[in-house]
């Protein structure tokens, strides 16, 4: 599987099933500002509440074959193997589909994720062991402190200045210099560096 990070804002997502597994996926999809429709005979109370708050649309019935036509991304998470398999069979080859109980029938896997602002660390075992993914995620949570969030903002700001203001030939060295670990914890060093960078822009 080819790992990519996809922008789901404003995209139509259809989730089949309304149990705890569907809800876990929905919670993360909502953070991505996807437009979510849940089609499920019944649904856990969290999904019902999200529907009442107009944060998603829950249609309370069995899935039908044309429910998925307009979806950019589909999650098949009913508790029935044959229903999930039928959904995978119906979608067209340009749609993204995750099948919660039969990975091989879908074309993407949902990883375990650690977020530190712009830093996104995602772990997958290619379906071999979700439990190991969770364990590795916890190790990464320990290794990558919350400091990374503001550090990434600093890196982003500096890189934007470098890309916009510094001639191409000088960029690579500056971009490499930026990843010096000294900037991770020392906010004053970040401030100093940014000032130097802004000065450089006028002399180059
Ligand atoms: C990471 C995470 C993302 C998420 O779902 O948000 C995720 N599973 C999580 C939790 C979890 N899943 C399971 C348990 C029980 C313990 C265990 O069995 O180990 C727990 C633990 C718990 O619930 O605490 C059981 C399980 N999972 C799958 C099957 C079906 C099968 O294997 O065929 C079964 C057996 C069902 C049964 O018994 O019938 C399938 C998949 N689960 C995946 C992802 C994909 C592979 C990821 C990878 O490549 O590693 C994949 C292939 C499909 C997919 O969903 O894309 C999320 C952790 C979020 C976090 O906390 O970070
Ligand atoms: N991928 C994962 O991370 C993972 C983890 C654990 C379990 N699973 C698998 O995911 C599936 C769902 O787990 P769960 O605990 O949420 O199950 P669940 O039984 O709690 O919920 C199933 C949902 O599917 C709905 N449903 C059933 N048939 C339907 C149909 N024809 N049309 C529409 N909705 C229908 C039910 O109303 C219910 O809301 C199971 O097959 C389980 O083995 C996947």
Task: Walk me through what this model shows.
- The protein is of the alpha/beta class and 204 residues long.
- It folds into two domains: 1-110, NAD(P)-binding Rossmann-like Domain (Rossmann fold, 3-Layer(aba) Sandwich); 147-203, no CATH class.
- It is built from eight helices and seven strands, in the order E-H-E-H-E-E-H-E-E-E-H-H-H-H-H.
- It has helices at 20-31, 45-52, 81-90, 130-143, 147-165, 168-177, 182-185, 187-203, and strands spanning 12-16, 35-39, 57-59, 73-76, 96-99, 112-116, 119-123.
- The structure holds ligand PQ2 and nicotinamide-adenine-dinucleotide.
- Nicotinamide-adenine-dinucleotide binds at residues 16-22, 39-43, 62-63, 77-80, 83, 100-101, 130.
Topology (elements, then pairings):
Blueprint: E1 12-16, H1 20-31, E2 35-39, H2 45-52, E3 57-59, E4 73-76, H3 81-90, E5 96-99, E6 112-116, E7 119-123, H4 130-143, H5 147-165, H6 168-177, H7 182-185, H8 187-203
Ligand PQ2 binds at residues 24-25, 98, 100-103, 109-112, 124-127, 129-131, 133-134, 137.
């Amino acid at each position: 599987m080819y790992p990519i990070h996809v922008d789901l804002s404003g995209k139509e997502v259809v989730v089949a099933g309304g149990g705890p597994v569907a809800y876990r996926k929905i919670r993360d999809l909502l953070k991505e500002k996807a437009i979510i429709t849940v089609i499920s005979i019944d649904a856990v109370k969290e999904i019902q509440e999200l529907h009442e708050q107009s944060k998603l649309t829950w249609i309370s019935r069995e899935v039908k074959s044309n429910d998925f036509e307009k979806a950019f991304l589909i999650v098949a998470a009913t508790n029935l193997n044959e229903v999930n398999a039928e959904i995978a069979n119906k979608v067209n080859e340009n749609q993204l589909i995750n099948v919660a109980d039969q990975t091989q029938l879908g074309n993407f896997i949902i990883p375990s994720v650690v977020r530190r602002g712009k830093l996104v660390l995602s772990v997958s075992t290619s379906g071999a062991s979700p439990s190991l993914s969770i364990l590795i995620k916890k190790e990464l949570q320990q290794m990558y402190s919350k400091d990374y969030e503001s550090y990434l903002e600093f890196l982003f700001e500096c890189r934007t200045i470098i890309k916009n203001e510094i001639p191409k030939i000088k960029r690579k060295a500056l971009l490499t210099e930026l990843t010096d670990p000294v900037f991770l914890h020392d906010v004053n060093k970040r401030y100093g560096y940014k000032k130097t960078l802004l000065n450089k822009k006028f002399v180059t």
